[in-house]
Amino acid sequence: MRTSLLYKYCCCFFLVFLSLFIILNTYGSSQIKTNLINQKKIALYQESESICNQYVQEYYSNSITKSFLYKQLVTVGSLTNTRIWMTDHDGTLLLDTEDSMSSVTTNVLSIDPTILNSNTRSGIKYSGYFDKPMIMAESNIIVNYNTVGYIFVFMSEEKVLEDTIQITNVINTLLLYFMVTLILLIVCMYFFSIHPLHKLIKAAKEYSLGHFDNPISLRGNDEFNELVNTINYMATELNSMDNYQKNFIANISHDFRSPLTSIKGYAEAILDGTIPYEMQNKYIDIIVFETERLNKLTNNLITLNSFERNGSMLNITSFDVNGVIKKTVSTFEGTCTKKKITINLEFPSEELFVDADIDKIQQVFYNLIDNAIKFSHHNSSIRILINERNNKAFISIKDYGIGIPKDSLKKIWERFYKTDLSRGKDKKGTGLGLSITKEIINAHGENITVISTEGAGTEFTFSLPLSDV
C-alpha cells in the first residue's frame, strides 16, 4: 500500500508533538520543580541571613524586646509566606512565628538531631509541626564572634509545586501554539512541495505514455520550478528524439525499399524471361548499381553507430594531408572526366603533415569531394585550398554548382536530410555523408563550417592540427 508524503508528515508531526508533551510533563516538570526548589533555598537563606543581621542583632543589643522581635518576624513570615524559628545556641526554641510565643519549651534537636548540620534542605516533614514537605534555610546568629543562636526559615513545597504546575501550563500552552504553527507549516509544505510533486508525477506518467505535448507549469522561481523546466526540456528532447526515430525509420524504409524494389523486379524479370537475353546485361548493371547503393547506406549507418557507441575512438598519426587529398581526388577521375569537371589543388607546400586519424579524414575528403562533384554543373571546376595559421591547417573545398537553399543550411548535418534538389539530382545519395563528416571532425576536437549561395556554389571548411614533425 502506497504511503503518501502528507501522511508521513502528519505522523512525524504527531510523534514530535506527543514526545514533546510527554517529556515536558515528566522530565521537564521534574527539572522545573528542582530548579524552583534550588531558587527557593537561595532566597530563604538570604532571608534568614537578613533576619540575623537586622532584627535579631537589635534584639541581642537590647534595642528591641522579644515581643517586638516576635511581631517583626511574624510580619516577615506573613509577607514571605514562611514560618520562622529562632533558637539559642543549644537549639532551644525561643520564637516560632506560628506558635504565639508559647511557654512550652522545645528543643529543635529533639525534633531533628541533624537540623544544625546544613544551611539549606528540602523535603522536610516534622510530625506535629509540618505535615507537608518543607524547604528550610538556616543561619547562625553571631554576636561578638560567637554563635548565640540560630534562625530557621521554612516554606511549604506546595508553593513550589503550584509554581511548577503554572510554568508547565504556560509551556503546554506555548506547545499548543507550536502545534498550530506546525499544522500551518504542514499545509504550506503540502502546497509548496507535495502539490508540485503530484503535478510532476502526473506529467511523468503522461510522458511515459509518449504524451509530450502537455508541458508542466508551476508558479514561483524555486528549485521545483527549475526541476519543472528541466523536465519540460527533457520532454521536448524526448519528443524530438521520438520524431527523429520516426523519421529515421521512414527514411531507412524509403532508402531501402526503392533499391530493393528495383533489384527484386529486375531479377524476377530476368528469371521469368520478360527481359530478353540480349538486354539482361543492362538490367544486371542496374541491379549492381542498386546493390552498391544499399551497401553504401549500410556502411554509413555502421559508421554512425560506431561513433555513437565508441565516441571519439581515433587512431591519431602524423601524415601528409596533401598526399591524402591527391589520392582521394584520383578516385573521382572517371566521374570528373564524364562531367568535364576540373579540380584545382592549392597547397602552401609540397608536403603538410597533420595529426589525425588518416582513414577517417580520407572519408571526410571523399564525402565532401563527392558532394562537390554531385552538385557541380558540367564544364565547371572545384577548388581545394589549404591555409596555415595558429598551428592549424584550414582546408576548404569549394564548388561553383547549384548551392544550398538558405533554409536548408542548418539541416544539412542531420541524418538522412536531403534537399529537394539532392533527391532530384542524385538518387544514389543516402543523406548520411555530411552527418558522418561532422561526427569525424568533431571527434578530432575541430570544427567544420559551410558557406553557400543558391545558384553560386558551396564551400566547406574544416581545421586539423599541424604536426610537430
Break the fold down into its secondary structure elements and pairings.
Elements lengths: L4 H56 L5 H15 L2 E6 L4 E4 L11 H4 L8 E5 L9 E10 L2 E11 H52 L14 H49 L8 H31 L6 E4 H10 L2 H7 L2 E5 L6 E4 L1 H17 L6 E9 L2 E8 L20 H6 L7 H11 L4 E6 L3 E9 L4
Parallel strand pairs: 7-9
Antiparallel strand pairs: 1-2, 1-5, 3-4, 4-5, 6-8, 9-10, 10-12, 11-12
Number of strands: 12
Give the overall silhouette: rod-shaped
Mean pLDDT: 82
Spatial extent as radius of gyration: 52 Å
Class from helix and strand fractions: alpha+beta
Order of helices and strands: HHEEHEEEHHHEHHEEHEEHHEE
Low-confidence stretches: 420-427
Instruction: Order the strands across the largest sheet as they lie in space.
Output: 2-1-5-4-3
Question: In angstroms, what separates the terminal alpha carbons?
Answer: 70 Å
Largest sheet: 5 strands, antiparallel
In percent, how helical is the residue content?
A: 55-70%
The share of residues in extended strands comes to 15-25%
- The total count of helices amounts to 11
